[in-house]
Design brief:
The protein is mainly beta. It has a single domain, classed as Rieske [2Fe-2S] iron-sulphur domain (Rieske Iron-sulfur Protein). It contains 1 helix and 9 strands. It has a 3-stranded antiparallel β-sheet, with no helix packed on it. It has a 3-stranded antiparallel β-sheet with strand order 2-3-4, with no helix packed on it. β3 and β4 form a beta hairpin. It is globular and about 40 Å long.
Length: 116
């Protein structure tokens, strides 16, 4: 499933996506150069959405993902919580691919993989 074009996500920025058309972003993507890091948009503390406003997933230094509800901080490249109430837990990864034309796609359907 195509999410966007790589040029739609500026280097060092983040963006939320709603691939299931559920009315809220369920995936967050952070771009670092040509590398993309995809995560389910759910804090492991209570499963709440991460952004405090649309597409606002990063701290001021842009080197950590931050939960807007709890202030928990996560490493961008691993998803591991480094500060906050879910210390030791991690975000759920979402595999992404970039095609030759710069299209960003879900590599698999993360919703099926995370169902109990």
């Amino acid at each position: 499933m195509r999410l966007c074009h790589l040029d739609d996500l500026p280097d060092g920025d983040s963006r939320g996506f709603d691939p299931r058309a559920s009315g809220r972003d369920t995936i967050l993507v952070v771009r670092q150069g040509r590398r993309l890091h995809g995560w389910l948009d759910a804090c492991p503390h209570h499963g709440t959405p991460m952004a405090w406003r649309k597409d606002a997933y990063l701290n001021a230094a842009r080197d950590r993902i931050v939960c807007g509800a709890h202030g928990a901080q996560f490493e961008i490249h691993t998803g591991h919580c480094t500060l906050g109430p879910c210390l030791g837990q991690a975000l759920t990864p979402v595999p992404l691919t970039i095609d030759d034309d710069g299209g960003v796609h879900l590599a698999a359907t993360p919703f099926e993989e995370t169902r109990p």
